[in-house]
Design brief:
The protein has helices at about 25-35, 65-85, 115-130, and strands at about 5-10, 15-20, 45, 50, 55-65, 85-95, 95-100, 105-110, 135-140, 145-150. The protein is of the alpha+beta class. α2 packs antiparallel against α3. The protein is elongated and about 50 Å long. About 30% of the residues are buried.
Length: about 160
Amino acid sequence: MTTSQQKLLCPKYNTIQLELFHFSLVSLCGISCEVYYSVCSPTFQGTTRDNFEGRRVCHLEYECYKEMAVKEMNKICSLIRSKWRVSKIAMHHRLGMVPIGEASVIIGISSQHRKESLEAVHFAIDTLKANVPIWKKEVYSEGNAEWKENRECQWKSS
């Protein structure tokens, strides 16, 4: 593992990773391999779009408080395990600059039955966006940029 990555394994085959650089094909295949333990292994991939509310987006930039982000991601894993019978969980989020069309976040969860893993993946991305201290800046073609709040974010200003 490079110094640009922070990867922690928590009990019961959870993988939490924050990466400074792009997800390589090896990373993407690794996520798939991490969760292909059971019959059903859905994944969610959040990809950088080229526009927001009619404005052309050039790229995104992500920052986080790593220690707290990893702690919150591990809490999400624990919550998932308390709600559904799942085998493996992999959550990877990029940090730094993310160009258009590239993945910012990938989540994969395996289980014996599709309903459990699909519900768990949906819960994971919604909870990650609401609770994990990862901040996103959109950089626009006009040259300006804005820090964005997730609608789900707990610390969102009124």
